[in-house]
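Input record (one chain):
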Amino acid sequence: MAGVQATSTSRFNKARLAQAMGCVALLAASVLQVTPLRAQTASPVPEPRRQFVIPPGTLDQVLSRLGRQSGAQIAVDARLTVGIDSPGLTGEHTVAEALRAVLVGTGLEVVRDPAGEYGLRRRSTSEGAPAARATGSLPSVTVTAGADFPGEPPRPYAGGQVGRGQRLGLLGDKDFLDTPFNTTSFTAKTLQDQQARTIGDVVKNDPSVRTIWPDGSYINQFTIRGFPTQTQDMAINGLYGIVPPQMTGGLEAVERVEVLKGPSALLNGMAPTGAVGGNINLVTKRAADAPVTQLTTSYFSDAQYGAHVDLGRRFGEDNRWGVRFNGAYRDGRTGVDDQSQRAGSATLKLDFRGERLRLSADLGYHDMHTDAPTRVVFTDNANFQIPRTPKNTLSLGQPWYFAASKDSFGMVQGEFDITSELTAYAAFGGRKNDFLGLYNFIYLQNALGDFRANQYFQPTFSDTRTAQAGLRAKLVTGSVHHDLNLSVDTLHTDSGVLAPVVSTYRSNMYFPSYVAPPNLLSYSSVAPRTAESELTSVALADTLHFLDDRVQLTLGLRQQKVKAFNFSTAGALTSSYDRGRASPAVGLVVRPWVNTSFYANYIEGLSQGPAAPAGTANAGTVFAPIQAKQLEVGVKHDFGNFATSASLFQIRQPTGFVNTATNQYAMDGEQRNRGLEFNVFGEPWRGLRVLGGVTFMDGELTRTANGSYDGNKAIGVPTTQFNLGAEWDVPQLPGVTLTGRFIYTSSQSYNVANSQRIPAWNRVDIGARYGLRAGGQPVTLRAGIENLLDRDYWAAASSSFGLARGAPRTLALSATFDF
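The corresponding structure, as predicted from the sequence alone:
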């Protein structure tokens, strides 16, 4: 069912915040009567009447809309609603009245259990019988939230940690069983309960994703299925070019973090830097029908304090207008020596939902300043083994290093139902980013940890403008139903970067030395424009539904055009290209049973062509766009409250190497990643929730120049990635939930010759939360420890991004007050 420039900035007054938090705690303890959340029950009240506007449709669709508009829990045996239509509903009704009205002529009736949950049964069922529940292979489904409006995601799956479906770009929102891809959508509840600060914290729940930049740093980089994905490759509400490149906060405004595994050129167009292993989309929060007034205070070791305000209201006729505001601020010392970080964000979301017209707007600002930022480590050559990891609290930079960024962004989206079968949609947005950093790049010299360091003073900027327009249509040809989608997209980026080496020094990774700051008076803190790119595309897709939706075939093609220009710091054009390529895709879903689907896909990814690196004979030469190709098959099964999936995939992408004989850089090789993924999520037993899985991968180099590295392991591709998290509601302690997570990553190769490797690593996280009521208002207290055993480890190895260290043991505390 659908369901900085300044090395000195104003510092946050931690003492005042600590005092404020203490006052709140004292007030709650001395004035308010505190009782466990589960132990307090509301007094009986008459069932409210609500205004419903539900058009005719299938019974599944009508019940889904009724659940959204009422907020009621409705348990449905999927077998009861197959092939049944409903007249819909308009007017003011109680939930029970509304259910009876939409069931007219269906042969079904509504019943309600003692817990207040509604259910359906056939009219021939005896009056005292319970509501029909799923048995055998067909699960019951709880109808709650859905996805009628832009930015409103499909409802959560059982346990509330993931969504039942997610947005698939051109194809729109789909239930996970109707999706011919491996996807996971993490909910705002998961983000809040796990006290996530960055996207990197969130994707640690996914066995196909790994972070390749140090935890707690000022930037997010990942690998998905063994291929890199940068922050700029993430989308917001389906639009590229909006996410701040240095996103260290702002998750408070996010309703879902959606992860799609594999290339996605047809679905989303070409990512700005060409991620092919997968796509991450952020869905922003919208005002819900129920008012939201929430305050969250937080603490992270060593001494970082924060606060977050979340306000949401709907108003007007039928609650058509909505406003949601999220403001967050965090500042203080982290667990790394000399390091502190400030992150602030403010977002305003507006929306209108009419019968035919739906609009939304997002405006946001993000500010980040990190002192002594943690960065990756490189090697100068492959003639030594990678040394052991230094202590995770040890800073490898200078205390006067910094990284600072400011981002302003906004977007407007809308859709209009021309007819009941034809919808037009459009979106546009943009972002302005300014960044300034002073830091080092470390190059290891030997296994003893000796290194040379180049110190860079680096200003950058990027301005983006993006737009999208399209049509969605439904039509019928004979017994085949079609979902047609036509989309036109464009993304224009102006950017600039200066990265002069201001000084160099030598030191040791285990005993880092301190040096005096360089004189920066002769260096500019503003970058000129050094690059411009424009990505435009036209895409068409048709999903054909056969045999009452038991077979769904998606066919699509996107024609992508890439224009790129590079300039010298004086503004002279140094290189350019203007190329286009077509990217087809085929997806198949077969559902022999309602709760089981088999799927397969062939889809391509597209990346901007690389430039030959400095020092090569053809330095600066820009190559044509690169196509990656994926084949995948899989199966998904929904047990009702618990779901599993398994998939086999292969991704091939051309790669470049330097010919040592000619010193020419050329696209002379290919990386082939093959893998097997298992995912689990849901609540298999009442009060016990699980989330995670395992990925086995074989990353191999093929077609290399003269076959020199054929058969070697691809850089940074582990053979095994395992993640498993669990939550347990303790029966003997009402309101108490214990949490834990185990993460394992096998060893990884660091160079194409496979002569350098980093060892396997694992990490344990634990936590607890307590839900209670204070003065009749819900309060949630949370505590967590990341990297409980305080392990030192290289988390990732990448030829492009270097070696990334794991985070030190970190204590996280937070309290959420709902008013």
